[in-house]
Amino acid sequence: MVKQERALRTREALINSAATVFHRDGFSVASLTAISSLAGVSNGALHFHFASKARLAEAVEDAAAHRLERIVTAHDGAAGNALQLLVDVSHDLARRLTEDVVLRAGFELSRDQVREGGRDLHGQWRRWVGAALERAAGQGVLGEVTPGEVAASVVAATTGFEVLGAQDPAWLSHRTITRFWQLLLPRLAAPPALGGLVAAGSHPVQPGHRGQPGRPR
Amino acid sequence: MVKQERALRTREALINSAATVFHRDGFSVASLTAISSLAGVSNGALHFHFASKARLAEAVEDAAAHRLERIVTAHDGAAGNALQLLVDVSHDLARRLTEDVVLRAGFELSRDQVREGGRDLHGQWRRWVGAALERAAGQGVLGEVTPGEVAASVVAATTGFEVLGAQDPAWLSHRTITRFWQLLLPRLAAPPALGGLVAAGSHPVQPGHRGQPGRPR
Asked: Which of A48, B74, B131, B169 has a Cα-to-Cα distance from A120 of 20 to 30 A?
């Protein structure tokens, strides 16, 4: 039992180290030795858990996909309507991208055209945004726009914040995401719903986050 | 003279091949032999023109920066106001990103965190978008929004279209970009200016482009 726990911890440490090294050096250049030494384990231990660098990248992407799933389900039911839910989740995702290197590296790996057959985190996000907008339409909180007209632009903007935020966390700051929703919500929301929507997010923000340009990873 | 022309043509062929191989394989993996053989020249000829893979990447980024510059200046003065100019240029940039591998690879290289000291094409685009919005404000065509509030969202969305378009050209299609501006223009434009703005772009579109999901590269 103790042995099994230790194996799980080692596996998790390797996924964290791999995310850090993939983010810093890129998948192609990332060395397995750098990953194992950052995790404080031997190369042998790394190979016991992961047969190749590609398997390690898949594990990072899987972990990131689970975290993305956890972020969207954590908000489910809390927000008043699906448009507010979309706003709240986008704030939470932006914050976590600056704090969580596994989530960050997962999105980067998923964009990598060189590796084949990886997880499609952008697709997962796109499907979720599309479904949230469909729900908002069903709730009558969308105005003159249809979910299909809007989804691509929302996904493109959030992807842009994520990509640009990799080099400068200000792109993922609470202020930047709030301004985006301040711009977009009056176009998206039906007039009776607009007044109740909070572009800054309807959830209390963790101390130190609001107004900060993001945190260094 | 003839010799000089041939040298220029070889240099250009190498830049084109390098863009193709960087786009396909990524900078880190891209092999100089693949690049020279695609250009139809010897490894020696490649090394005569470019001392290293990094120099070749810089040449691709420089060429892409010139093309971006040419795209924005080609529209200057043609559009009625700076907001329409922004719409027209974004359509043109999207189309060219699907057609021109040098422009495409230039943006990809400029995003690459691994290489240091590269050209900042996203910064060049960001500055141009900011300046266009400032001009639009000066012309009185912006509504209740200020350029500073809007610029980041426009840059993020266009960056998202570019990044997502690398894997699926539908993200850069005329239809996708038109929908983005249909969504945003009513929020950006002063009411008297809105009626005169064309979300689909005010320039005639090349045959075969409108409505197509983009072209394979």
From this structure: A48
